[in-house]
Amino acid sequence: MNDVQKSVIVSSFAPEIKTGGQRIMSSPIQFQTFESESTFLHPRKGFSPFTERFEVRVDPLTGRTGHFSHFGAIKPQKLNLDSYATPEIKGFCPFCLENRDRVTPKFTDEVVAEGRLVRNEACLIPNLFPYDIHSGVLIMTDPHVVPIQGLNETRLFDSLVLGVQFLKKIKAISPDLPYHLMTWNYMPPSGGGLVHPHQQYFATPNPGNQFLDELKASEGFLDASGANYWSELIEVERATGVRYIGQVGASSWLSSFVSLGILGEAMCVFPDVFTVDQFTEGHVGDLVAGLLKIFKYYATTDIYSFNDATTDIYSFNASLFFGPEGQRSFACHFRITARTFLNMRDYAPDLNFFQALLGEPVSVMMPEELCTALREYF
Questions:
Q1: Domains, the chain, ordered by start
Q2: 3-class secondary structure for 21-45?
Q3: Residue 309 pLDDT
């Protein structure tokens, strides 16, 4: 150990599942943390020695690591969303009603005979720049600018039901595309190309590294332990209580042990759903009910002091994963991570070399603290 870097403290926790206070068995899930400190002479404290702590955690499923640091240093930045409705900023939007029918593409007859799928405000069209053979964009609302509070139960339910309907249709047409997913970039910090609320739905043999790593690790966990990882995770997190947010119908909500987002990550697991065909409107209702609770937290809670001040969280990324047919190891799950600009002078993004080049997520919000804050809304 030197004067700059303290020695690493490694903690590895294999929780025990108990019933009625009696120990039944140790879980095969391992929660591993590397705790460390860095000491330096702080210029704002008269150059006196100052120690800053940080953590590296290992994802219990994939084995990937994630950093936790900069605690309290990054906070959501305010953005005037109303300005995006002004002509000089809005510009041309193909999703707005006055342009939609004229400039957005239509599906071929064998995919969607009517050209587009519509359910109230929700409208699903082909992606002009597709991610795979069957790639759909779901326009969620008629208005161009819709704040989080405007993503109400009806809009969310209609969008998700229509999107899942499309995935089921595609599965029947192209069963050789085994993986089905929804992705969602909401508002500018998320990387969304348009402010107008929309989601992406597609089927693919190449669903991305996160999806495939989870799928392979889930299969390996089942083979090695005889247990389903996702069901086991729910039971373990419910028993320990530090990251289990709550249950909504058939879904369980957790804060992820390793967060993929800088402001923390919430995850919703449907332990008895493995493919898109098994996902019913009842499951959509459970997901929407939980998501509305997350949105209420975004709108009303200060993520650092847990009081009634606003978070100014108005942007996020979300995903919904469905596994391939014929397996019972990879459960359907939804993730949502809040996004922000680091500052409003440069509009600096909250992603940097860690995520872009090292493939390493960084979070300033401890999952246990996020769980405590979110639990009030469940």
A1: 74-378 (3.30.428.10)
A2: CEEEEECCCCEEEEEEEEEEEEHHH
A3: 45
